Amino acid sequence: MGNNIQLFEDKRIRMAWDEEKEEWLFSVVDVVAVLSGQPTQRRATLYWGKLKQRLKEEGSQLLTNCQQLRMKASDGKKRLTDRGGVPSPPVTPYNLHIITFSFST
């Protein structure tokens, strides 16, 4: 699984290609950071954690398929992060916007 970094509104979005499923995987925390304007990765992680807790309390189906993947963090270490998936073709900024919109509804 190859790792890649995409930029969306000048912010990093960690991506990885899953050969077996033929889809791009992305870090949900990175997308949350961009959409919520969180200044640091830590704040984005806390924001996503609280959002997941609230969604779980509401009985949201979003969390049933939210799996984790090790991706390279800014400190160079591979850390677990929640991931989302996008079938091929590769993600463009427009596609990424559509994906993130689906998380907000």
Average pLDDT across residues?
76
Kindly state the number of beta strands.
5
- The proportion of residues in beta strands is 25-35%
Poorly predicted segments = none
Structural class given helices, strands, pairing? alpha+beta
Shape: globular
Structure description:
The structure is a single chain. With 105 residues, the chain is of the alpha+beta class. It has one domain. Helix content is 37%, strand content 34%. It has a five-stranded antiparallel β-sheet with strand order 1-2-3-5-4. Helix 1 (28-36) packs across helix 2. The longest helix has 18 residues, at 41-58. The chain is globular. The protein starts with a strand and ends with a helix. The mean pLDDT is 76.
What is shown here, in short?
The protein has 105 residues and is of the alpha+beta class. The chain is 37% helix and 34% strand.
Fold topology:
Elements lengths: L1 E7 L2 E8 L4 E5 H9 L4 H18 L8 E6 L5 E10 L5 H12 L1
Antiparallel strand pairs: 1-2, 2-3, 3-5, 4-5
Helix pairs in contact: 1-2
List its salient traits.
five-stranded antiparallel beta sheet, 34% strand, 37% helix, single chain, alpha+beta, 105 residues
